[in-house]
Cytosolic protein
Amino acid sequence: MECKRERNLKRCNCTYDPCAKKGICCECLSYHLKMRQLPACAFPPEAEATYDRSFEHFARLVREGKV
């Protein structure tokens, strides 16, 4: 299967510029899940900017109705 990196980059809200996985969703997701995190695309912009991608942060946002 061909990676659609350029198309993915148009939708990617990750603000961590030095990331080599940016736009390569399968690698990004795999990396973050191994770290008990979710990728940037799971978070609204203001939460993504904190770089806290933890499951716990996501759960707090859900409880607060921000996701």
Summary: The chain has one domain: 5-63. The two ends are 31 Å apart (CA to CA). Helices lie at 5-11, 25-34, 45-48, 55-63.
